[in-house]
Amino acid sequence: MRRAPVTRVVGGLLGVVLAGALGACGDDGGQDTDADSTALPSCLASLTPVTIPTDGTFPTDWAFPPGTVVTGTQEVPGGGLAITAQVGADFEKVLPFMQSELEKAGFVATKGEAEHDDAEATWTGGGFSGTWAIKASEDCAGTTLLQVAAAPQ
User: Fold this and answer.
1) pLDDT per residue as tens digits for the range 56-86
2) Considering just the CA atoms, what is the radius of gyration of the chain in Å?
3) How far apart are CA 98 and CA 64, in angstroms?
4) What is d(CA 85, CA 148) in angstroms, rounded to the nearest whole number?
5) What is the tens place of the pLDDT at every residue in 34-64?
6) Sign of the C-alpha dihedral, residues 110, 142, 17, 48?
7) Which of 26, 80, 124, 143 could cross-link with 151 by S-S, CB 3.0 to 4.6 Å?
8) Segment (H or E) for 115
9) Helix, strand, coil % over all residues of the chain, rounded to 5
């Protein structure tokens, strides 16, 4: 029954990290996984990439939506990682990606909910479990805020 406490810790941290990022669209740092950053909104193009550690705290094969800029990472108590990112696409394009492409990559949602401008889900896959959340950015038109928290199972 270890999974429940890990999910609560990861989910709780995701909520704290997401709350801090909801107003962030600026020079926080980030990682552009889309080679053509000139097509990104200017508020994303100005971000400096942050590297996601490859030390086993986050799935190295996580499927990020095209145009994702990682703006921060934070250790999860108990040995995981939460990432904060911004995606250079509207919420309406990011949501279907999160609902289908993640599953194709082996990260299966176990439960979730979606509203008109935000969505979240818990997931398992690749030896990890965690949560993801997306929200239409209020400060950077045409972009979506993304949070992913992961912990090894």
Assistant:
1) 999 999 999 999 999 999 998 888 999 999 9
2) 14
3) 8
4) 8
5) 444 446 678 888 878 899 999 999 999 999 9
6) positive
7) 80
8) none
9) 25, 35, 40
Q: Which amino acid is at 73?
A: T
Determine the Cα–Cα distance for residues 81 and 75; give it in Å rounded to an integer: 5
Please state, in angstroms and rounded to a whole number, the distance separating the CA atoms of residues 145 and 67.
Answer: 12
Residue indicated by tokens 């896959």: 125
Q: How far apart are CA 104 and CA 84, in angstroms?
A: 22
Inter-CA distances, 74 with 43, 53, 150, Å: 22, 10, 11
Nearest to 45 by CA among 88, 91, 94: 88
Tokens 């190295």: give the residue: 60
Asked if 64 and 124 count as a contact pair (C-beta separation under 8 A), the reply is no
- At 26 the pLDDT is 39
Contact 26, 46 (CB under 8 A): yes
Per the CB < 8 A criterion, the answer to whether 62 and 70 are in contact is: no
What pLDDT is stored for residue 42 in this prediction? 82
The whole-angstrom separation of Cα 138 and Cα 144 is 9
